[in-house]
Design brief:
heterodimer, A: 361 residues, alpha+beta, Rossmann fold, OB fold (Dihydrolipoamide Acetyltransferase, E2P), 2 domains, 6-stranded mixed sheet, 5-stranded antiparallel sheet, 9 helices, 26% helix, elongated, B: 318 residues, mainly alpha, MetI-like fold, 14 helices, flat
């Protein structure tokens, strides 16, 4: 087992900077998801941890050990590739036995370890199948088993579910999480799918454009995004953000949203932080937390999406568009006007100039 | 109403265009390819039958009768019994086999080494790549003349050797029976390693990179990766490359003929040279047909074997 420390990690490809100064501490036995849109540097980070790429500058430590110049075969990391990279010309057994065999383990020892890992991953009946005719979930288990047999301290998974259809993904998410509990290794999981990150990870590192945006538990990242990017990226749909100016009123500090009117007053602690920050703000709230109220923002319904039990109501247009998610069909239809407001406690305010969250207290 | 008829019409269309059973599809395919089949059959079968026919006669262009009348000279398989006893034929066959057993493995190993080198990037790769492919583009007759000059006793090869050794070297490359065969093999290796290199490089870059990385992460060193991943994945292409070169090398002629003319004596006389001599000098075409047919059978066995191996490795795709 091993903790991973990334210190001032930078990676440049020629003129292109894939990763700008990344610092991240991944605890021993933690399941860390690197989440972000494509091109955000998450795979580059992962490849550097695995040793497939050398950092331009900065340090990678496994526990106390500096990994600089350590070849990837000797880092003791298990790596599950996006397409699993199973050796298709071999049987499942040969795939599982590959690592120990290359390290010169004795035949009896290899057999014992293959047997044990196959038992754990329920691959025993498939051991003598050719690996080129396996279904995706079995391929994934072979890929995990092939790495796990080496008992690596660190497990790296590169978007292992991106080739799988949606229904199957749900099954695999559970399976993967259970496997991690079984192996109790440090896991780093790269994904662009926030659902995977939210459901499986202990903590999520949200990245964008080669910059680490926020690290936190799934709920922290969801509830308290540190900036506008995280607010929009996390959640489906992302957080509503409306541009406005803070304004004093007799009920307390409100945000003047221009044509949309003024918001309900901000909670006291947030209000004083906004007063201190000055300048224009973005008024943010989660679509799931929007409620129909008597007093609030009055907006026309422009579109209604019904997704089974949930209904997404699109209100307003352009800059001042707001999405609201309701658990049931609440009977709104296009053309009607809805009066909505988020509960005061769920409101988040961001500095319009810097995009950073204005923190209460 | 019109929508309903449209659906019915579509169904009918389907029934007509799509074959109802696989069998019917095969029959349609057969009918469509029949003209081409006949043409191919004529091109390949006609000369073969003609050759078979002439091979059981004493016919030659000097016989004074057309080849179609060769039956008048029927010699009851004497050509084949002669062939079995023809020591010059058997030693030519043996020589051809020696050339093949040296050249093809040498070309394969060199080609594989070069392909491995060129699979990675290094400075000047494109230039070296072009230079490397050049021998393949030289007309074999020209290559033959080039090596003929290189291997003269006062030629550049001896000159370079003299400089290395320090004393004058005057090896009679092309007039020594053993050295002549070596010189001929060197020329063949020089000319055909690039083809092997090209085919093997194509196979090498087709090896999935992530599987190579996975092997590295699992602790395999370069040699282990090569033997456990690269070679098995390249099996099909290696069989193809070897089959091409075995068949081609068996027919080695132009370069060799210009360098040595099959000599000194018969020291470099391979099957093709022997056939050429019998055809142009002895003019006994019935006998030539018998030799050629025997060679064809040998090469066909090689080809069939290679195809079988290929089909087998395709069953277990790389």
């Amino acid at each position: 087992m091993s903790a991973i420390h990334l210190q001032n990690l930078v990676k440049k490809f020629g003129d292109f900077t894939a990763l700008k100064t990344m610092d991240l501490e991944i605890a021993d036995g933690e399941f860390m998801a690197l989440l972000g849109p494509s091109g955000c540097g998450k795979s580059t980070t992962m490849n550097m941890i695995a040793g497939m790429e050398e950092p331009t500058s900065g340090k990678i430590l496994f526990g106390e050990r500096d990994m600089a110049g350590m070849p990837m075969g000797r880092r003791g990391v298990g790596f599950v590739f996006q397409n699993y990279a199973i050796f298709t010309h071999m049987t499942v057994r040969q795939n599982l036995a590959y690592g120990p065999k290359m390290r010169g383990a004795a035949k009896a020892e290899i057999d014992r370890r293959v047997g044990a890992i196959a038992e754990m991953l329920q691959l025993s009946p498939l051991l003598d199948r050719k690996a080129d005719r396996l279904s995706v979930n079995i391929l994934q288990r072979v890929a995990i088993g092939r790495s796990a047999i080496m008992e690596p301290a660190i497990f790296l998974l590169d978007e292992p579910l991106s080739n799988v259809d949606a229904a199957f993904r749900a099954v695999m998410r559970t399976e993967l999480k259970q496997l991690q509990r079984q192996f109790r290794q440090t896991m780093v999981y790269v994904t662009h799918d926030q659902l995977e990150a939210m459901t499986m990870a202990d903590r999520i590192a949200v990245m964008d454009h080669g910059v680490l945006q926020q690290v936190g538990t799934p709920l922290e990242v969801y509830n308290n995004p540190v900036n506008v990017f995280v607010a929009r990226f996390i959640g489906a749909p992302g957080m509503n953000l409306l541009k406005g100016k803070p304004a004093e009123s007799d009920r307390g500090l409100v945000v003047d949203l221009g044509p949309l009117g003024v918001t309900p007053p901000l909670p006291d602690e947030l209000a004083s932080a906004v007063r201190a920050a000055r300048g224009d703000v973005l008024y943010g709230f989660r679509p799931e937390q929007v409620a129909l109220t008597e007093r609030g923002l009055s907006m026309p319904v422009s579109f209604v999406e019904r997704i089974g039990a949930r209904t997404i109501v699109h209100l307003g247009q352009g800059e001042s568009a707001v999405k609201a998610v309701f658990e049931n069909d609440i009977g709104l239809s296009v053309g009607q006007t809805a009066v909505v407001a988020p509960p005061a406690s769920s409101v988040r305010v961001f500095d319009a100039a810097t995009g950073l969250a204005v923190k209460a207290g | 109403m019109s929508a309903v008829t449209a659906t019915i019409a579509e169904d009918k269309m389907d029934a007509r265009t799509k074959p109802a059973t696989p069998n019917e599809g095969a029959r349609l395919g057969f009918r469509l390819t029949l003209p081409a089949q006949i043409l191919v059959l004529f091109i390949s079968a006609f000369p073969l039958l003609m050759q078979l026919y002439i091979s059981v006669t004493d016919w030659s262009p000097l016989s004074g009768v057309g080849w179609w009348n060769a039956w008048e000279m029927w010699n009851s398989f004497a050509n084949y019994t002669d062939l079995a006893a023809d020591t010059r034929f058997w030693s030519a066959l043996q020589r051809t086999a020696i050339v093949m057993l040296v050249c093809v493995p040498a070309e394969f190993l060199l080609g594989l080494a070069l392909a491995t080198l060129f699979a990675d990037d290094f400075p000047g790769k494109r230039i070296f790549y072009s230079i490397l492919l050049m021998p393949m583009m030289v007309v074999p007759a020209v290559a033959g003349y080039m090596f003929f000059m290189l291997f003269q006793s006062g030629g550049p090869v001896n000159d370079i050797l003299s400089r290395i050794v320090g004393t004058p070297v005057t090896i009679a490359w092309l007039s020594d029976p053993n050295l002549a065969l070596i010189a001929v093999m060197i020329a063949d290796i020089w000319q055909w390693t690039p083809l092997m290199f090209l085919i093997l490089l194509a196979g090498l870059v087709g090896v999935p990179e992530d599987q190579m990385k996975a092997a590295t992460l699992l602790g395999a060193n370069a040699w282990q990766r090569f033997t456990t991943i690269v070679l098995p994945k390249m099996k099909t292409i290696i069989i193809i490359a070897l089959a091409i070169r075995v068949i081609e090398n068996f027919k080695i002629f132009d370069t060799l003929y210009i360098m040595t003319g099959g000599g000194p004596g018969v020291a470099t006389e391979t099957i093709s040279v022997y056939i050429y001599k019998v055809t142009t000098q002895d003019l006994i075409w019935g006998y030539v047909a018998a030799i050629a047919l025997a060679i064809l059978i040998v090469l066909s066995i090689v080809a069939v074997y290679a195809m079988k191996r290929m089909a087998k490795s395709r069953e277990l795709p790389a």
